[in-house]
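ugh ok fine here u go
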Amino acid sequence: MRIGLYPGTFDPLTLGHRDIITRAAQLVDRLVIGVAINRDKGPLFTLEERVAMIEAEVADLRAALGVEIMVHPFENLLIDCARDVGAQIIIRGLRAVTDFEYEFQMVGMNRAMDDSIETVFLMAEARHQAIASKLVKEIARLGGDVSKFVSPEIRKALLARLAQRP
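structure:
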């Protein structure tokens, strides 16, 4: 069984993330979406909320693609998470050349720790390449329309959360 791990903070899950999930799920028998607990980023949504949103967003993909998709929170090293879930492949999405430098370093470090786990890069579709969760939150916070960047359910959750903040 080919198992792939697609890690991220997904705060919130964007249409760009969903595009990568859809395409990655077609490359593996089981796709594990690793939801990182990254305290340094100060996420808008709790881990539990992000996991629940992702579960809801991928429910239709499981049936449509006939692939097992799991959501797995993690706080350890990415390479250790990959080992924990039995992944042979780490899937990373690239938006622009600026992403590549960081990802290049990450691959080198991960390979040094475990060269049996391969990293595969997928480019988001052109219409999703500029989408970044950080920018989506900023646009929503300033009253902009984020409906082109997130699903209606995520948009609703995002606006509700921002309405709670001073």
